[in-house]
Input
Amino acid sequence: MKSLIIAEKPSVARDIARVMKCPKQGNGFLEGNQYIVTWGLGHLVELAAPEEYNPAYRQWKMEDLPMIPDSFKLTVIPQTSRQYSAVKAQIHRKDVGEIIIATDAGREGELVARLILKKTGCQKPIKRLWISSVTDKAIREGFAHLRDGREYNALYDAAMCRAEADWLVGMNATRALTCKYNAQLSCGRVQTPTLAMIAKREKAIRDFIPQSYFGLQAKSTSLGFILTWQDAASKSPRSFDRQRMEKLLASLSGQPGHVEEVRRTPKKTGAPLLYDLTELQRDASKRFNYSAKETLNIMQRLYENHKVLTYPRTDSRYLSEDIVPTLKERLRACGTGPYKQLAGRVLHQPIPPKPFYVDNGKVSDHHAIIPTEQFVQLDHMTVDERRIYDLVVRRFLAVLYPPCEYEQTSITVKIQNETFLARGNVMKNPGWKEVYLTAAASGYDSDLESGEDEEIFRSQELPSLQKGDVLSRLTVSLTQGKTKAPAPFNEATLLSAMENPAAYMESGSREMAKTLGETGGLGTVATRADIIEKLFSSFLLEKRGKDIFLTSKAKQLLDLVPEDLKKPELTADWEMRLLKISKGALKRSTFMADIREYSSALTRQIKTGEGTFRHDNLTNTKCPVCGKRMLAVKGKNSEMLVCQDRECGHRETISRTSNARCPVCHKKMQLWGKGDNQTFVCSCGHKEKLKAFQERRKKEGAGVSRKDVAKYMSQQKKEAREPLNNPFAQLLSSIQAPPEK
Output
């Protein structure tokens, strides 16, 4: 009898098939003497749409809500039905004696495989492959230690509870809002709290009143360094009392300074922890302006195609103890090109007995992102892949280096009875920072971001002074600044807030805050990028430069959505109970009974709501399909006209940020209009017809931009053919992808 291996994606299936010697290719599978390997395309099976329970549900009517199925049905996703049929055929082969689940090791990976097995009616024994990288070595070791599939039944129960709960809440709340206000409105337990966090930040910015603060600096012209005043009581270099500081300035001017203390303190700073996906997405956003989705896609290629990095969808920044013996082999694999010397310096040094980056208790499904044992060919990577790979490899090398050692010198000077300080650092051993000394191209800044007070006490070269020295010729001056409002969210800071939303919780529950911290906050590392993209595509968010803001539609939606759905506490409560289910401490039926009751209450709350929704972005342009006035909306990188009728869904792109650079200021230009009237417009005021642009670039010999323009034209035509997703389609899409969690 043979074993059937079900992988999540074709690329992983091919790797497993090669290692397990399955060369024979069939329809949707690869076969060998002992194993057959087949695959999904992500999810092949999903929870059925409402109309499969009742044909009347095809039309969205308030009187049909809430929709609460007694038991959930499964349906094959139409786009991937062909591959489902191929997998089903292999499952029911008479010579297949057992199933080996080889989907991603985690709650959602378990769901992908179990839904297929349930839909096909499979009753054969199940084993589980649990690996975090797809190198040949990892695959061999994983198959040498296969686990009984029954060990993961509780994990499967938790995954099903999450999927069914999101269906009940999302489907009912979205339909209720859409029917109640006759507008394309959707909500969910992750996307709505995310919008609420942005709303709170925008309110904090609006309500912020800047305050002027003052300080004093004493400059020694002869010795060339600056001393900063420090308040004796608060230890702050700032005061909001201008009169006090002006009086001090008058009394201290021309007075000598007496060196009261010279302190030299040896300091050590360790390397930052290894990357999880969210931290990597944050860094990529800050340094290369990559969106969270772009970073995940690049990581996926490095994991699946190049096989040089481990599993990307991880929320851990630590390694487990079993990985430690493989570190030297990973060093040899990545120690090429710009990393050869850096890797060589630690390759022959012993690993410390208790490294700070190893902690079994902080590794759940997958360890941190690190290089694999696969040999690296840098010249086979794109520029984007090289950048992300560089970030991961340097972080990996950094934790293997010793701490950075420096001597911090602080000089305390008294001018009359007032204290002035100066600080300076002398590097003794760069340690892990040496990894980044040659990394200017990566844009890495190894120093931690400092607060305003730390910026005032800036580090500088200090003269050699002793206690009791007298400093004459000090020039004292008044300094002035203003407190800063909170910065608007960008993708990097929004990811941080979603990962740790405790500051936006109203309950003050420490247990819930702890749960959100342990379970990854709002969404997961695997879904946060998709959630942000969905908020842009639903026209709930817009970008101004790098900053993210709510649209008018989002602001109105937050006024109409029930309070529960705006709070991170809902996700915290669910995750606390899902964790218990996955450990066998809570029954699945108990959780789902509560969710059914909650969905009914939520629907009643929306039905009886008294709010209103008004399109304040209506234009005078008529929809060419239905004749109704269209809405002006801003996408992530484009501006569009969208039909106000959610059932029509027609849209037109009127401008898009192109890759074409302005010849004046070199910024990316917007491409406006259609056909022969298309025009590039830059924020600096430069305008240029598409035809003139093409002729100019042709003269300059730059064929690349022509390709960029052709790519844009193709994308624009594609978008013109695609109808805008209605909320029902969007919700189903999110469930397939999988749903937000």
Q: What stands out?
A: Residues 618-736 form one domain. Confidence is low (pLDDT under 50) at residues 440-455, 719-741.
